[in-house]
Specification:
Length: 110
C-alpha cells in the first residue's frame, strides 16, 4: 500500500523498485492518473520475450531479440511508454522512449 502522504497528494504516483515516482500532472480540480508500465525485452527459455513492468508473466515470446523488440516497440508507441532492452545476462542494454517527453534526451545512437 502507498504511504498516506502519497495517497492524499493531488498527483498520481507509481511504484518502481521501491521508489515512488511522480508520473501524473496536478490540476486544480483533482488529479490525472497515468499508469506507466514500461515494456522490457528479456531473455526467456532460450529465446526472448516482452514483459510489462510489474507483471509476473511474459506478454509474448520470440525466437530473436529483434522480433521481441519490434513487438515491444509497436506496443510502446500505442501506450506511450518506454522499451527497455536487456542483454542475455539480464543487464540493461538500451532504453527507448515512445512517450510524450517535453525535453527528450539527445539520442546519439540513431
Amino acid at each position: 500500500m502507498f504511504p498516506a502522504h502519497l495517497v492524499a497528494a493531488p498527483c498520481a504516483y507509481y511504484l518502481h523498485e521501491s521508489r515512488h515516482q511522480k508520473t501524473g500532472s496536478c490540476t486544480g480540480k483533482g488529479f490525472t492518473t497515468m499508469s506507466k508500465k514500461d515494456i522490457h525485452v528479456v531473455p526467456h527459455k532460450g529465446g526472448w520475450a516482452t514483459r510489462r513492468e510489474g507483471a509476473g508473466d511474459v506478454s509474448s515470446r520470440h525466437r530473436t531479440q529483434g522480433a521481441a523488440y519490434d513487438t515491444a516497440r509497436r506496443d510502446a508507441k500505442r501506450d506511450r511508454v518506454e522499451v527497455v532492452t536487456h542483454r542475455r545476462d539480464g543487464t540493461i542494454r538500451d532504453s527507448d522512449s515512445f512517450g510524450r517527453d517535453p525535453n527528450p534526451p539527445r539520442d546519439k545512437k540513431h
